[in-house]
Amino acid sequence: SAADKGGWDSFMAKEITENPEAVSNTLMGRIQDGAVTLSSLDVLGENYFREIDRITVIACGTAFYSGQTAAYAIERWAGIPVTLELAHEFRYRTPFITDRTLVISLSQSGETMDTLMAVRYAREHGAKTLSICNTQGASIPRESDAVVYTHAGPEVAVASTKAFTAQITALYLFGLYLAQERSTLSSDEIADLLDEFQTIPEKMRAVLEEHDRIKELAHWMADARSVLYLGRSTGFPIALEGALKLKEIAYIHAEGFAAGELKHGPIALIEPGQPVFVIVPSPRHDDSLHPKIVSNIQEIRARGARVLAVIEGGDATVLPYVDEAFACPPTSEFFEPLLRVIPLQIFALELSTAKGLDVDQPRNLAKSVTVE
Ligand code: G6P
């Protein structure tokens, strides 16, 4: 009913505005004196996190992209290889698992059959399993060795939004916890990261202010036949997630690419007028990605692409090269994806709305796929 939607036209519209609470509620009670407490992990044993030598993340759909996003930070912070696999691929290829492998499953519903079967497979083959889940007592957390719940609140719209940012939040907390246990970051480094982490809900609210401008763009683009998304580093899975959202609810062909792959194929798709979202990192990070992305933008622009950029507010170095820019507040490298994804969620919502589609119940899709 309209009341359940809290005055919004759709659950998805409401849930996008709940991104800040999804993050703050997932952080709540888990940060103490500049350190992470995740007492639900104690069951894995005192030295467990020093003994593991790899992490494999399994998930489907949007949850997979949250894993792909967080893997960059977990590897950097905790000094452990993190590989990802779609749950339905994992179990049919004799995956490499030992008793030193931690298998992390990501699932909003906790009922996705492919993910559940992959968790069972991992346990049978000697790995410990950690469930990151948004649904208390669901099948996947019940069948896992340990669980860290996301506290996004119930998600009703088929297309996942706030559960995505809550999953990244839980994975980041886990990554920092791991860094504490493995002594791969100093306590000052961890405290600084946690300070920045806690500013993210407020920064997300600032991004939500871009809603009306994105809505205008989406209504203008209602006839688009194809939209491309480009990003590098954590911007890459965000590009994939942005494209998935558009396919799911607006039925528009959309593809995400790692921007560095452009010259290896996708640039052939660029013709005059082709809309391309580009996820632009902050120019302040000392990783040299920003100039690379700017040169990618110049390459596609020279071929007529319409560039829609998600940038750090005030990034004047990119503005001359883009057609539209949506601004996010500055934050440190690994927290950027939590902000950059929001304009893409809003864009899909508004494009679907502009086409008069059922935003919450897209054709052919289910909120939770409980069959293989
Ligand atoms: C379905 C939904 C997606 C979701 C995926 C995984 O395909 O339509 O929105 O990302 O399942 O769901 P889970 O509940 O395991 O996160």
Itemize the secondary structure elements and their pairings.
Elements: H1 11-17, H2 19-27, E1 31-32, E2 35-36, H3 48-51, E3 54-59, H4 61-78, E4 82-86, H5 87-90, E5 101-107, H6 113-124, E6 128-133, H7 139-142, E7 146-149, H8 162-182, H9 187-197, H10 200-208, H11 211-220, E8 226-231, H12 235-250, E9 253-258, E10 275-279, H13 289-301, E11 306-312, E12 324-328, H14 336-354
Parallel strand pairs: 3-4, 3-5, 5-6, 6-7, 8-9, 8-10, 10-11, 11-12
Antiparallel strand pairs: 1-2
The structure holds 6-O-phosphono-alpha-D-glucopyranose.
Describe the 3D structure.
This protein is of the alpha/beta class. It is built from 14 helices and twelve strands. It has a five-stranded parallel β-sheet, with helices on both faces. α7 links the parallel β6 and β7. The protein is globular and about 55 Å long. It starts with 10 loop residues before the first helix and ends in an 18-residue tail after the last helix. The structure holds 6-O-phosphono-alpha-D-glucopyranose. 6-O-phosphono-alpha-D-glucopyranose binds next to α4. It catalyses: D-fructose 6-phosphate + L-glutamine = D-glucosamine 6-phosphate + L-glutamate. Keywords: Aminotransferase, Cytoplasm, Glutamine amidotransferase, Repeat, Transferase. It comes from Gulosibacter bifidus.
